[in-house]
Amino acid sequence: MLGPVILAASRSDKMRRLVSAAPVTKPVVERFIAGEAVDDVVPVVKHLADRGLEVSLDVVGEDITTPGQSTAARDAYLKLIDHLEGLGLGERAEMSVKLSLFGQALPGGHELALANVRPVVEAAARIGTTVTLDAEDHTTLDSMFAIHEELRKDFPQTGCVIQAYLYRTEADARRLAANGSRVRIVKGAYKEPASVAFQKKTEIDKAYVRILKILMEGEGYPMIGSHDPRLIAITQELARRVGRKLEDYEFQMLYGIRGEEQTRLAAEGHRVRVYTAYGTDWYGYFMRRLAEKPANLRFFARSILTKG
């Protein structure tokens, strides 16, 4: 039951200051965050590519308050794309973007986010890659899906994310699968009320499998965001059952988690993409990683007690 508490803390300025100031925070954060600047993350992309892996790059920091910050976020992605192009890494790295970082929650946010994300999608296409729109809390999803639909008119490879714990997601999956989208399915990492989302792990896991079946039987390109060995095995069995080849879907895992499993799946011929976050405003992302898995929280708490 600690997950909801941690997710609430991810929005607390007081907790942000406390965690950021803890002496042990930096080495623990480095487990999940690839660095603070483009120059930090590019060597990580190279290293992962050398292991046969691909990446999805996320510039962290969705809690913005001004249009100027949203423009700065856009420019950070454009700078990243320029670096990848110069090193010939474009085809190994897609971009993941949270529309809140591009101004979605500000006045006129829908139009602002669309205006900011479009140049990033255009630049990604220029170097042979694409963009996936991350899912955030349930109140943002209608806007996200509308922007996704608009971008796909010119860039049909643009992806989006759906979250298994939301009641609405099975219907979203059927619509997206029929449209042939690139769709990443995850369990969900935001604090959502029982009125819109399953609360029990067993219910979320069952929903994940139902949605995964819809995607695997559909016309799109499923991206399976999970570290769960059982869900990975179910994915492989569903792929065999519906006749999907290895290049017709991919696994996605977080940077810093189950690296050996990532390499193993890639060695078997699976396409494996590592979700790799970087940037200075890492707090919200870091806290969601702690909330997702109790082992992550125990690791961090033990570090504070023994070294703080």
From TrEMBL:
Is Protein biosynthesis among the key words of this record? no
Which EC number applies?
1.5.5.2
- Spell out the coiled coil positions from the record: none
What PANTHER family does this protein map onto?
PROLINE DEHYDROGENASE 1, MITOCHONDRIAL, PROLINE OXIDASE
Cross-referenced Gene3D superfamilies: 3.20.20.220
The scientific name of the source species is: Streptomyces ureilyticus
Cofactor(s) recorded for this entry are: FAD
Task: State which pathway it belongs to.
Answer: Amino-acid degradation; L-proline degradation into L-glutamate; L-glutamate from L-proline: step 1/2
The UniProt keyword set, sorted, is: FAD, Flavoprotein, Nucleotide-binding, Oxidoreductase, Proline metabolism
Pfam families documented for this protein:
Pro_dh
Lineage, opening ranks: Bacteria, Bacillati, Actinomycetota, Actinomycetes, Kitasatosporales
Q: Which reaction does it catalyse?
A: L-proline + a quinone = (S)-1-pyrroline-5-carboxylate + a quinol + H(+)
Using the record's annotation, list all stretches that form the Proline dehydrogenase domain.
Answer: 45-301
> Which protein is depicted?
proline dehydrogenase
Q: Which InterPro entries match?
A: FAD-linked_oxidoreductase-like, PRODH_bac_arc, Proline_DH_dom, Proline_oxidase
